[in-house]
Thioredoxin family protein (Pelagibaculum spongiae), 180 residues
Amino acid sequence: MPTNCDFGWKAPDFTLQNADGEAFTMSDHLGEKGLLVMFVCNHCPYYVQAIASSLATDKKLLMSEGIQVLAVMSNNYQMFEEDSPENMKRFAQKYHFDFPYLVDQSQKIGQQYNAVCTPDFFGFNAQGELQYRGRFDNKGMGEASSRVPELVNAMQMIAATGRGPEQQIPSMGCSIKWRE
């Protein structure tokens, strides 16, 4: 489970490639409405697969409002073939990801961000300061009767005010699979 939000922590810049070898630089995506960097993977049935469709829909909404989105896959895909770049392409197509889905082959970016699980969400304001490190929504594994899109709400708040909500509930999911 991720630690609490370290408000104001500056996002380390990075350049990663998607599965097709196209490079994306984080600072190029840090727009005036902020940036969401999310650590996800393909194989996590516990949470990523369970929310993938909603994740794509929510990200489409955020992007339509000028909030930039980058997804990073830091898992050791030599150990988990389902997370390989080729399978990332299939996963992104299946769930209609229209945001960059990037390979962190060295796992350096996941470590710099202190990402611990998939999904792990980092919401930054226009200055690249962390304002959200919470969960996707209140549904968890189906416990809530009506969905509250906490990540969307937080990112909209950051876009409007530059600040995230004071109260945040950490994300849950499968642990990131690190190399030894």
Remarks:
- The two ends are 20 Å apart (CA to CA).
